[in-house]
Structures are given as structure tokens and as C-alpha cells.
Amino acid sequence: MKRIIIVPFTSHGVLEYLDALKESLAESLRRAGVEAEVVVWSEVLKPPIKCFNWERKQYRAQCLIEYLRSTLQLSGVERSTPVLGLGFLDGYEEGLNFVFGEAMPNLSAAIVFSKRLRQEFYGSPPDFNLYFERLVKEAVHELGHVLGLDHCRSPGCVMNFSNSIVEVDAKTRYFCNECSRRLKG
Ligand SMILES: [Zn+2]
Ligand SMILES: [Zn+2]
């Protein structure tokens, strides 16, 4: 059985959701026919300042992913074990204003930035259920990339590319049949 590790990068906005998140991740994979044991890393990693862009006030996704991989490797986690970082942070990548998440399949690692998944970010009242639903979708999506999937246009599939919160809300937390088939193969 595949072991997947979720690693918090902040306490705020993350820790209270982790138990439910790991169940939801395992459930999405199970529905795709993949049995996985999802575990939560016991410490909160501090995002390194070298990954912070002071002009943009955002963290660079690839920098955090590389830091995540090397930190876990130092703690004895095999390089092939999928790891997913999660932080209540704002992230970007070169050429993009922001990203909800990013994956580096060659490192078997990904990150989800959850600051823009909150209703408050858009000036709306808090909605914890909606925030959690978005967290799950983005976590499953980035994990899908780590497990070898590309973007998918099948309506509702979690592997749809989301460039806005409207697009996140439009998809489900599940893999379509084609993506499920690829995951198993
Ligand atoms: Zn993607
Ligand atoms: Zn799909």
C-alpha cells in the first residue's frame, strides 16, 4: 500500500483540518481504485525565508517544494514517498500571479497554498465547510500530479486546471474514470 505524507507549513488554517483531510484524500484515491495510507507529519515546518519574495509578498512554490523534499529526506523519508505540503500562505510561480498549488512529480512532492481558498480573501463571510472542500480538491489535484496525472478536461474531474476560485468550486474532489484508470496503471 502506498504511503502518502501530508506536511503542515503553518498551524493556522491548517492543523484543525488535517485529520479530516487525510481521510478525504484516502477516500478520493480509494474511489479511483488506489489504496493509500495517508499520514500527517508530526511537526509544523517553518517556511524558509529564502522562499519568500518580499516584493510580491508571496512564497515561491518550487522553492518550498524543494525545501519540503530535502527536509523530509534528512529525516529519513524515502525520496519516492509522495509528500504534500500545506500552508495557509499565498504562493506563486514565475509567470503566474498566484497558484493554489504546485507539484513537482520528479521530486514526488507538491504544495497547496490555502490563503486564497478562504471566502474572507474575497471579502465574503467565513465558510469553513467551503474552505475545507476547496482544500480537499486542491490537495487531491496536486497529489494527482505527483502520482503522474496531467490536467484533464473531463467535466467535474478533480484534475481540471483551476485558475480561479470559481473553477475550484466547479470541479469535484474525485478523479474521472480515465484519470482513475491512469492512476491504477
Ligand atoms: Zn494542476
Ligand atoms: Zn480526469
Structure notes:
With 185 residues, the chain is of the alpha/beta class. The protein has a single domain, classed as Collagenase (Catalytic Domain) (3-Layer(aba) Sandwich). 33% of the residues lie in helices and 18% in strands. The chain is built from 5 helices and 8 strands. The protein has helices at residues 18-31, 61-74, 128-146, 165-170, 177-184, and strands at residues 2-8, 36-40, 52-53, 58-60, 83-87, 91-92, 101-104, 109-113. The strands form 2 sheets. The protein has a 5-stranded mixed sheet with strand order 2-1-5-8-7, sandwiched between helices. The longest helix has 19 residues, at 128-146. The radius of gyration is 15 Å and the shape is globular.
- Which oligomeric state applies? single chain
Number of domains: 1
Provide the structure class: alpha/beta
**Main sheet properties:** 5 strands, mixed
Give the topology string: H per helix, E per strand.
Answer: EHEEEHEEEEHHH
Q: For the terminal residues, how far apart are their CA atoms?
A: 15 Å
Please estimate the helix content.
25-40%
Stretches where pLDDT is under 50 for at least 5 consecutive residues are: none
- Tell me the overall shape: globular
User: What is the average of the pLDDT values?
Assistant: 97
Lateral arrangement of strands in the main beta sheet: 2-1-5-8-7
Task: Count every helix, treating DSSP H or I runs of 4 or more residues as helices.
Answer: 5
Listed once per kind, the bound small molecules are:
zinc ion
Radius of gyration: 15 Å
User: Superfamily at the CATH H level?
Assistant: Collagenase (Catalytic Domain)
CATH level 1 class label: Alpha Beta
Q: In what range is the share of β-strand residues?
A: 15-25%
Number of strands: 8
Task: Identify the CATH architecture.
Answer: 3-Layer(aba) Sandwich
Looking at CATH, which topology would you report? Collagenase (Catalytic Domain)
